[in-house]
């Protein structure tokens, strides 16, 4: 399974990267720190899963998830955020998961 | 051997520190929960003397069988007696106010009442002896001094009734004041800003990320975070300005790790009295707002400027941050602006609760810069 990590914070991306690397069969194919780079990476790398932060400068994760949902052969979106109040909005975007930071491996 | 010596030195150091702490601890001016008002204050003494004198006039009118037979000599004698009973009682109650504040109200009430009656008894007996006996006034009337039991009983009954009424009044007045202070304290506590939960979780995420790659930095973040939450969980109080600036720095150090080059800081701290105090966690929420509403939404980040200066009248604190214009912000700009206003209102109310109208908080947004100004009276 190919994974794209989208988060504006370097430390948060590094942590997700290390966690994904510990799971057999999963591989991080790209990282992005904003919505535009994330869309480009999806087109380029065709990931299966997008781990997506919500609060980012520029376009936020919720808005990006709506665009992803409209893509042909859209990857699954799993939100990773420190905020719990966006959960309802998040599932309105067809996301398959909502993880709260700090995310646990299991 | 060495360890024993080291332990001994440590114990001795610890004793020295304890002694220093004890020596530095200020004696509180007021008990935590006073039973009666402070009867030693100049205002209380003035009012008590005035009430005592009015009482003396009443008793003189009553003893002279009306105003037409009003006797100035009697007024003088009664005034002396009433004044010294009132003054001695006030001194005794003032001395006992810390002890009374620690007792339950029934016990404190009975003690206070008994004490005032005992003082009245002693001073009435002494008064009869001094005024009629020792001064020789009895002999001037051609009579030998004889102790007047009825006079004493009269005085005691009058004292029992009037001191009961006066003590009850003072007690109720103090309880009302205690209640008002408790309510004010509760309001300040409710307004005490709590650090936003997402900051805790983001910081924990940073720590989790750093533990593997940079354990020293992870350790420092844990220390900074502990300091911040210790301050946040503590009772709201006035703390030295220097301490509040330290807390802001701890907070910004953590955010710096998360935001990297997107966060630039410009500290412009002028000279200020090191003893100066401000409400705890008053600046930190403003800096947090500057990050949350200012830096985080901007892809390239920006600069937060913190200016602190003091003149002979007031302390001024200015925090400047860039902000994203609302129409460009994509998701939650209205909620964000509302949240920012609430945070500012909250700090404004805390300032008013501590300093009254002498403190001001205002803000302006122009040319892409949001500026918050705080002016506080100098509190040492």
Topology:
The complex is a heterodimer of chains A (106) and B (380).
Chain A: E1 2-6, H1 10-21, E2 27-32, H2 35-45, E3 49-52, H3 61-69, E4 76-81, H4 87-91, E5 97-100
Chain B: H1 2-24, H2 42-63, H3 72-95, H4 97-102, H5 105-134, H6 137-140, H7 149-191, H8 197-213, H9 215-233, E1 238-240, H10 241-259, E2 263-269, E3 277-279, H11 284-295, E4 302-310, E5 314-322, H12 333-355, E6 360-366, E7 369-377
Parallel strand pairs in B: 2-4
Antiparallel strand pairs in B: 1-3, 4-5, 5-7, 6-7
Descriptive account of the structure:
The complex is a heterodimer of chains A (106) and B (380). Chain A is α/β, with parallel strands linked by helices and 106 residues long. Chain A starts with a strand and ends in a 6-residue tail after the last strand. Chain A has four helices and five strands; from the N terminus they run βαβαβαβαβ. Chain A has a single domain (2-100), classed as Rossmann fold. Chain B is built from twelve helices and seven strands. Chain B has two domains: 42-189, no CATH class; 192-377, 2-Layer Sandwich (Heat Shock Protein 90), CATH 3.30.565.10. In chain B, 64% of the residues lie in helices and 12% in strands. In chain B, strands 2-4-5-7-6 form a five-stranded mixed sheet. A two-stranded antiparallel sheet of chain B has the order 1-3. In chain B, α2 (42-63) runs antiparallel to α3 and α7 (149-191) runs antiparallel to α12. Chain B is elongated. Mean pLDDT of chain B is 83; it is low at 1-26. The interface between A and B is medium-sized, with 21 and 25 residues.
């Amino acid at each position: 399974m190919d994974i794209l990590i989208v988060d504006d914070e370097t430390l948060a991306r590094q942590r997700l990267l290390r966690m994904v690397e510990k799971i057999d069969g999963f591989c991080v194919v790209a990282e992005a720190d904003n919505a535009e780079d994330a869309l480009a990476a999806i087109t380029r790398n065709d990931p299966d899963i997008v781990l997506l932060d919500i609060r980012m400068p520029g376009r936020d994760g919720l808005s990006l998830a709506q665009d992803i949902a409209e893509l042909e052969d859209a990857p699954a979106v799993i939100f990773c955020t420190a905020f719990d109040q966006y959960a309802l909005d998040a599932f309105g975007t067809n996301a398959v998961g909502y993880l709260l930071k700090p995310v646990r491996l299991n | 051997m060495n360890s024993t010596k080291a332990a001994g030195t440590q114990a001795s150091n610890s004793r020295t520190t304890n002694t220093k702490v004890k020596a530095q601890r200020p004696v509180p001016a007021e008990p935590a929960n006073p039973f009666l008002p402070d009867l030693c204050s100049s205002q209380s003494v003035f009012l008590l003397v005035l009430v005592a004198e009015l009482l003396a006039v009443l008793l003189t009118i009553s003893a002279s069988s009306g105003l037409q037979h009003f006797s100035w000599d009697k007024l003088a004698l009664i005034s002396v007696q009433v004044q010294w009973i009132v003054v001695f009682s006030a001194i005794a109650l003032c001395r006992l106010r810390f002890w009374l504040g620690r007792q339950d109200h029934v016990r404190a009430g009975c003690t206070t009442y008994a004490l005032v009656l005992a003082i009245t008894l002693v001073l009435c007996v002494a008064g009869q002896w001094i005024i009629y006996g020792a001064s020789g006034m009895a002999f001037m009337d051609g009579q030998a001094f004889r102790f007047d039991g009825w006079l004493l009983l009269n005085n005691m009954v009058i004292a029992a009734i009037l001191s009961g009424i006066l003590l009850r009044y003072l007690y109720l007045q103090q309880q009302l004041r205690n209640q008002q202070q408790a309510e004010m304290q509760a309001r300040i506590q409710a307004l005490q800003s709590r650090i936003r939960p997402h900051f805790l979780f983001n910081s924990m995420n940073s720590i989790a990320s750093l533990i593997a790659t940079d354990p020293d930095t992870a350790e420092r973040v844990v220390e900074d975070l502990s300091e911040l939450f210790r301050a946040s969980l503590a009772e709201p109080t006035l703390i030295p300005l220097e301490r509040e600036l330290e807390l802001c720095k701890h907070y910004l150090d953590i955010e710096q790790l998360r935001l990297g080059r997107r966060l630039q800081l410009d500290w412009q701290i002028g000279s200020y009295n090191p003893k100066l105090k401000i409400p705890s966690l008053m600046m930190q929420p403003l800096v947090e707002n500057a990050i949350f509403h200012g830096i985080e939404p901007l892809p390239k980040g920006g600069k937060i400027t913190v200016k602190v200066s003091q003149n002979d009248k007031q302390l001024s604190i200015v925090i400047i941050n860039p902000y994203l214009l609302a129409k460009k912000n994509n998701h939650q700009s209205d909620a964000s602006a509302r949240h920012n206003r609430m945070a500012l209102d909250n700090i404004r109310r805390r300032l008013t609760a501590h300093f009254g109208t002498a403190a001001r908080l205002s803000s302006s947004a122009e040319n892409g810069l949001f500026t918050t100004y705080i002016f506080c009276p100098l509190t040492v």
